[in-house]
Every structure is written in C-alpha cells, then in structure tokens.
C-alpha cells in the first residue's frame, strides 16, 4: 500500500521560514544593499535565494512525492497518480464519501471521482476527514 504525503500549507512553519529566507536573499543579493569587498558574494546570496525559493515552492506543490495532498482553509490539491492533480474548493463541496476504492466529492456543479486504489486505508480516511472538516455548512 502506498502512502500520501499530507501538507497543511497554513501551518507549515518550515515553508514560511524558507520563503522569508528566500525573500531576504533576493532583496539583499539583488539590490546589493551591503557592499562586500568581493562582488561575487552578492551573486551567491542571490543564487541562494533563488534556489531556496524553487525548493520551497516545489515542496509546497508536493512535487517531491508521488502522492500528495496540499490544503489550506480555502481548498486543496490532491495529487494521486497524476502530475497536476485535482483541485477542490471547500466552498463548492456539498459532501464527500468513500465508495470502495474511490473518493467521491460532490460539488455544487459536478462530481469528482479520485481513484484511491493502492492507497492505505488510514490515508484514505485522513483525506476524507480533512475534506469533511472544511466543508462549509
């Protein structure tokens, strides 16, 4: 059975710290606020900012994991066996349920089916509980 990597974007402090670090590096390296004796130091700081930005954004999207679920208070992105995944806005969801090996999400305008075969039962239930927790009633 495969596992899902769950990432609550609103509470992930490591990503927030990495983004702040990247912003500071981009500002200090790009604007050359501090004049170093060696001008290559500003380029190194700028490069560190760019690399940390790319890594933190890739982690936010779950690109390092085969199966990932990223969510905040507004919605979620479920990437199971696909590169782009399925986006769900919690304000559009009426109900969600597990039907065999599928997660069925009933939205106001349509129905989304997500194949969860080969995913552990514990992760299936956690995914469903996250959706049900955020549905607006």
Topology:
Blueprint lengths: L4 E4 L4 H19 L8 H21 L7 E4 L3 E5 L6 E4 L3 E7 L2 E6 L3 E5 L5 H14 L3
Parallel strand pairs: 1-2
Antiparallel strand pairs: 2-3, 3-4, 5-6, 6-7
3D architecture notes:
This protein is of the alpha+beta class and 137 residues long. It contains 3 helices and 7 strands; from the N terminus they run βααββββββα. The strands form 2 sheets. The protein has a 4-stranded mixed β-sheet, covered by helices on one side. A 3-stranded antiparallel β-sheet has the order 5-6-7, covered by helices on one side. Helix 1 runs antiparallel to helix 2 (40-60). It starts with a strand and ends with a helix. The mean pLDDT is 91.
Proportion of β residues? 25-35%
The CATH topology of the largest domain, please? PH-domain like
Low-confidence stretches: none
Q: In CATH's first tier, which class of the largest domain applies?
A: Mainly Beta
Strand count: 7
Helix content: 25-40%
Number of domains: 2
Average pLDDT works out at 91
CATH architecture of the largest domain: Roll
Query: What's the Cα radius of gyration?
Result: 19 Å
CATH superfamily of the largest domain: Pleckstrin-homology domain (PH domain)/Phosphotyrosine-binding domain (PTB)
Overall body shape:
elongated
Instruction: Give the helices and strands as they follow along the chain.
Output: EHHEEEEEEH
First-to-last CA distance:
33 Å
The computed structural class is alpha+beta
Spatial strand order of the main sheet:
1-2-3-4
Per DSSP, the total helix count is 3
Characteristic terms for this protein:
137 residues, elongated, alpha+beta, single chain
